[in-house]
Amino acid sequence: MRIQPHGGKNDANQIQIVRELRAFGFRVDIVSQIKKLYDLVVTGRMGTTGDIRTVRVEIKEPGKKLSPDEQEYWDADPFQETLMIAYSTENVLLWFRRI
Hints:
alpha+beta
């Protein structure tokens, strides 16, 4: 399965995060080629409850911030609790209460 889509510039840590999340059994859809949105849609089971949840993930390299377009999307989103910035796989695992 191809990890890096054509077009669009991905953050350097995206490939590693996608591989690691898939190894943990998460469904990871790469949508980074859609401008102004986010990079990944991640679906998996929550910590001890096992409930299935989905989070939209913006991948950023440590120290980087949202672009103006990304910030505009983030600010307008009515469901911000399902949108996160991840700098590493651990950030996503924490959201899912898996660590």
